[in-house]
Each structure stands twice: as C-alpha cells, then as structure tokens.
Amino acid sequence: MFWRLVRGALFRQKGKMLMVAFTVALGASLATAMLNVMLDVGDKVNQELKAYGANINVIPKEASLLDDLYGVEEDRDASAKYLPESELGNIKTIFWAFNIVDFTPYFDLNVKLGGSADEADAADVKLVGTWFAHHMDLPTGETLDTGMANMKNWWTVEGEWIDDSDTEGVMVGSEAARRAGIGLGDRVTVTLPPHSKQFEVKGIFTSGSDEDSQIYAALPAVQALAGKEGLVKRVEVSALTTPDNELSRRAAQNPKSLSTKEWETWYCTAYVSAICYQIDEAIEGSVSKPIRQVAESEGAILEKTQLLMLLITILSLAGSALGISNLVTAGVMERSKELGLLKAIGGGSLPISMLVLTEIVLTGIIGGACGYFIGLGFAQIIGHSVFGGAINIKPMVIPLVAVLVFLVTVLGSIPAIRLILRLRPTEVLHGR
Amino acid sequence: MDLLEIKGISKIYGEVKALLDVDLNVKQGEWLAVMGPSGSGKTTLMNIIGCMDKPTSGSVILDGTDIAGESARSLTAIRRDKIGLIFQQFHLINYLTALENVMVAQYYHSMPDEKEALDALGRVGLAGRAKHLPSQLSGGEQQRVCIARALINYPTLILADEPTGNLDEANEQIVIDILGKLHEEGSTIVVVTHDAEVAEVAERTVVLEHGRIARIIQNEGHADRKEKP
User: Which residue of B82, B93, B114 is the best one to mutate when testing the A interface, meaning the one whose CB has the most A CBs within 10 A?
Assistant: First the structure.
C-alpha cells in the first residue's frame, strides 16, 4: 500500500515532481561538474604551471652541505661534486614516477668566449651543458623524452633548438649574443684552459632571465670540455605536486619526526617534500630541494581555484535545496486535504512524513542520476574551454554526489515535513 | 451500556465559545443524530468525539478511555482503532482507485487486505466499481466508498459529518439505508446533520444551539422505519 501511495503521488503529480527532479538535476549537475573539475584541477593547473619551470632542484649532497652551512656559491666551491648521469633515469622509478613530468641535468662551466677567436676580446660567460630533447630507456622498460625543449618551452628561439647528439652546436642567450656581437650561424670559440672548442651558433634565445647571458650546448660536449664525462652538477625536475600542509611542512623539516602512520600518509601523497625524499632515495648522494617560489605559487593557485569550485558547488546545492523546499512545501500545502485525511483515518505524523519524504527522495534520485550525467558533460565543457583538455572522470564523485543529493533533498524537505507535523485534520478537512 | 460519555465539555476558541458545558451519553449500538444551525457547535462536537480535537474543559469517555487527556499520538491510535469517519466532502484520494481508498484505512490500521476491502465495497453496492478512480464515480458512489473506508476496520463508533449534504435525494436515501443496515448490525452511529429527514431516522436527535444542548428528541420516525419491510 505504501508503494501504491508513493507511485500514485509520483505519477499523478508528474508536473510538480518533474520540477523537483529538474531542480535536483540542476544542483547535482553543477556539483558533479565542479567536483570533477575540482578533483582534476590539481593536475590541470599543475600541468599549466609546469610550462613555467621546474619546481625541484637536485644537487650533490656535498654541494648542498656547503651551501647550507656557509651559503657559498655552488659553482665556485661545489663544482667538484657531481651526480652520475647514468642514475638520472631512476627519477622515473620513484613511487610518484607518474607525477614526474620532465627533468633535465645541467653541467655548467665558466668559460672564455671569443667571437673572433681573439684572446684579448674574450669574455667570461657561463656555458651550460644540458639535454634538449633527450630520449631515455628507463629501468622500468618504459621510454621518456625529456629536456629543455619541454621544460623551457616559453623561450623565444631565433634559429632552432639543437639536437642532443649535436656536439658542435650551441644556443646563445640573447644578452650574451648582443654583448659578444654574435649572430645565427656564427662560429664561436669557447675556452676552458687548457682546452678550447669551436661551436656553431644554431639558435639565439630569449628567456627573460639570467639564462639570456648564458650559452647552452649538448651535455656530452660540455662534459668532454671539462673532462667529466658521465657526470652532471645538478638536475631540475618538474613534478606534479599536492599543495603543502602542516604534515608536509613538518616532514620537510625532519621526516623522522613523523609517526609511522603520518609518515605513510606523507610518503604516499605527492607533496613536493615527499617527492624530493624519494628522489634522494633513487639517486645516491643527491639532495633534492623544492624551488619554493614555484612550489608555493602552485599550491596557492591550486587552493584558490579549488576553493572557488567548492564555493560554486555549495552555492548550487544551497540553491537546489531552496528550490526543493519551495516546491515541496507548495506540494504539501496543495495536498493538505489528502494528508489531513490520512491523519484522520489513523496515519501518524511520522509514517505520513516518511511517505512524502520517500516520494521526494525517489524524485531526487532520478533527478540526481540525470544531473550526474549532465554534470559530466558540463565538466568536459569546462575542461575544454578552460584547460584545453578533457577532465578525468573521478569515480569518487558518484558517492559524493549521491550523499549531497540525499542531504539537499532531505534538508530541502524539512519545511514541508514541519508543515505535515503541524497539520491538524480538523483544520484541513473542515476548511478551518 | 454507554459507549460514549460526555461530561460538561466546553470548547473555547479565543472569545468564541463553540461548546458550553455539554453533557451527552451514547449507548452501544445507538444511532444518534446531532442537529443544529450553522455555528451551533455540531462540527466541534464531532471533532471532539472523533478524537481530532480536545475540549477546553470536561471529559469525553469513549469505550472506557477519557480521550480529553490523551496525547496527540494516543488520539491518532484511538481514531485508527475505534472510529470510522464519514465526511460530507468524501475526502477520497484522487489518485487511488475506490478499492485502494478503502485499503488505505486498512494500511494505517493493520494490514491491507484486498479481498476484505472488496467485501466492504460490496456491502455498499460498489464491488463493480472497485477499480474506478474517484473522478470516475458519482457523488453518491464516492460517499459510499467513504462509508466502506469507514467500515473496513470494524470501528466501535461511526461518525458521519453531513453524510448526505452533497447528495441528491436518491443517493441520500441509499446512504441512509446503508447507515440503517449498519445500525441493525449493531454499529453505534453518530450523524451530524442539519437535514431533519436524516435526523428523523436516528433513534435520538440532539439539537445544539449556541454551543449548548437545546433539546433531545426521541424519534418516532426511526421506529416507523424499522417497522417497514
């Protein structure tokens, strides 16, 4: 009988119930879209921010100690300390390997640059050996293409990016080129006593930073000039990270201060400090440090974006609850004679409230299910229009939306339920 | 033996005195009519007897229980178990069939039983209209569904508020006949009406005026009616 009453109310009040379902669908669709975007926006914003540089710097442990203790310049006192190039692939074997977007090693030298090979005109300049578009076969069997072309993709390059196998070409920073009067296609002599080597200028780049005063060459060429084949001085890593919190800050200071459970939580979350820790484990003798400005800016942008999404979700659900409240209350007022009759023939307030609540929750489930699928569409529209790509659908949004729809439906029904509880059969049946 | 014993009840709404010091006894199996002009307190009395309202003062003992002091929840239970209500406006649920409208009362009382509900409709001559919606029934038929709903749980007391108020003469007679039959079967019936013809068929008529009992009439018409074949 209960279900006959529910079915009868649902089917014979189609218009009103459709309006309730529509209101729930609207709220659920926005909640679905926002929650999916919110949960995926971390990766999306991170991907966007990765375009603006690395967020982790890996250096040899000894160099880090000297830097930490004495604040000495790395390239003067720590130049004798190196990381083995052969171990760099290990970076992609850590627990958060999929969060490592790009990395590239550097070997820099202070050299003399003579544009016309005239020693008197030679100027001090930093020559940096690096990967430009390096192909790696990882220990895991996977392959990776990484290097400057990915990590510094905002550089404006006149000419071309050089190839990793090209040990005769260089890319010159625009400032260095201006000072030395170097143009595309020129040959320049780089001297690191007692060695010197001629390079062809394949590209002139503008980065807008100190890099404009430097010269970039393929890593093997610079290693050979320094006589340090197979070694690098530092590595820049671009990783997708989770914004820092109190746990990650404590861990960054001293991971040993964490309890076993805290440590597991921290280690299994993509905090920049956890990724640094895992890189240190993967490359012997290395110390990884977050580049704080980048890591914290990412965190701040991410938190604000997620907060905005959360606020939109809350507002849309609050709007739905208000809409449901109005519709259901109006429905109960319209049905006051019917509900009053049920009370008159012996129906208690609770069973009658449950009857009305069941009708609304069933309508809410239908509306919520429709809203979920519409929300997935909204999420993709947002993904393509804002981030230029699809939003990954998160299965955890389903239970979240289900709980939210239930809560919104029940909360929205409270005024109607109060009306039912106060309803007196004499008042509605005799029109008093 | 008195099924209903009303002792000195008053009902006051602000400055309006709907009932004033009313005493009334209804015997088990009696058919009582309550008459009076508009505003005389008929409906208020019916609401109090029907456990839908409480008196401001006085006591109402129904089947041994003083309902004047009961909580709203207890009154609901008493209404469900002991009272069958018949309304002038029928108050059928428009999206349920005649049969389902009868079964609703079973549902809140105990357990819906389709066969029993069908029998109840048969008693009011509507077995053939069981699957019809109220909108597909005439006024008289709707009132008979309402009576079937009131009977279904075998109430101790049947309360009818203007049961023929919305009916034509033919249907009025059908309803009176059904009530008469119920009375013969031993049901206690209280009918609130302003129709003298309806009141006449009851055993006694209580006439209310300005919230007080003006007079009580023993009806000869009832005896005459009983004598008819």
Answer: B93
> For position B222, what pLDDT does the model report?
60
Domain count, chain A: 2
Same-domain pairing of A397 and A357: yes
Nearest residue, CB atoms, A338 vs list B43, B93, B161: B93
Cβ contact B108–A347 (<8 Å): yes
User: At residue B228, does pLDDT exceed 60?
Assistant: no
Residue A9 touches partner B, C-beta closer than 8 Å: yes
Contact at CB, B105 and A341, closer than 8 angstroms: no
Q: Name the phi and psi angles at A128, rounded to 5.
A: -115, 125
Q: A 349-378 residues with CB below 8 A of B? A: 351
Residue with tokens 């699809």: A390
Query: Do the bridges between strand B57-62 and strand B2-13 make them parallel or antiparallel, or are there none, so unpaired?
Result: antiparallel
Return left, alpha or beta for B41; rule: phi > 0 is left, psi -120 to 50 is alpha, else beta. Answer: left
Selected residue of A17, A336, A345, A359 to mutate for chain B interface (largest B Cβ count, 10 A): A345
Min Cα distance A370 → chain B (Å) is 27
The mean predicted confidence, pLDDT, of chain B is 86
State whether A214 and A86 are in the same domain: yes
**Residue A351: which domain range?**
2-46+299-429
Q: What pLDDT shows up at residue A245?
A: 82
Across the A/B interface, how many CB contacts are shorter than 8 Å?
A: 72
A155 and A34 co-located in one domain: no
- What separation in angstroms does the CA of A116 have from each of A112, A127, A180, A194, A429? 12, 17, 9, 18, 107
Q: Quick: pLDDT tens for A3-62.
A: 888 887 777 777 888 888 888 898 889 889 888 888 887 667 766 666 666 788 899 987
Structural domain contains residue A262:
no
A426 vs B103, which has greater pLDDT? B103
Optimal mutation site among B96, B135, B154, interface A, most CBs of chain A within 10 A: B96
Q: Are residues A197 and A318 in the same domain?
A: no
**Helix intervals (H) in A51-124:** 61-70, 74-77
Question: Distance from A429 to chain B by nearest Cα, in Å?
Answer: 8
Nearest of A194, A183, A237, A188 to residue A55 by alpha carbon: A237
Conformation bin of residue A141: beta by default, left when phi > 0, alpha when psi is -120 to 50: left
Task: Name the closest residue on chain A to residue B105, using Cα atoms.
Answer: A345
Same domain? A317 vs A406: yes
CATH of B28-55+68-227, one of 3.40.50.2300, 1.10.3380.30, 3.40.309.10, 3.40.50.300: 3.40.50.300
Is B108 close to A346, i.e. CB distance below 8 A? yes
CB contacts, 8 Å: B52 with chain A = 344, 424-426, 429
Question: Is pLDDT at A247 greater than 70 in this prediction?
Answer: yes
Give pLDDT, residue A216: 94
Q: Are residues A31 and A112 in the same domain?
A: no
Phi and psi at B216, nearest 5°, equal -125, 130
A9: nearest CA in chain B?
B95
Q: Say whether residue A426 is in contact with chain B using an 8 A CB cutoff.
A: yes
Check: CB of residue A205 under 8 Å from CB of residue A158. yes
Q: Select from B73, B87, B161 the Cβ nearest to the Cβ of A348.
A: B73
Query: Chain B within 8 Å of A422 (Cβ-Cβ)?
Result: no
pTM of the model: 0.63
Same domain, A71 and A217: yes
| Mean pLDDT computed over A420-429 | 81
Between helix A292-334 and helix A397-422 the angle, nearest 10°, is 30
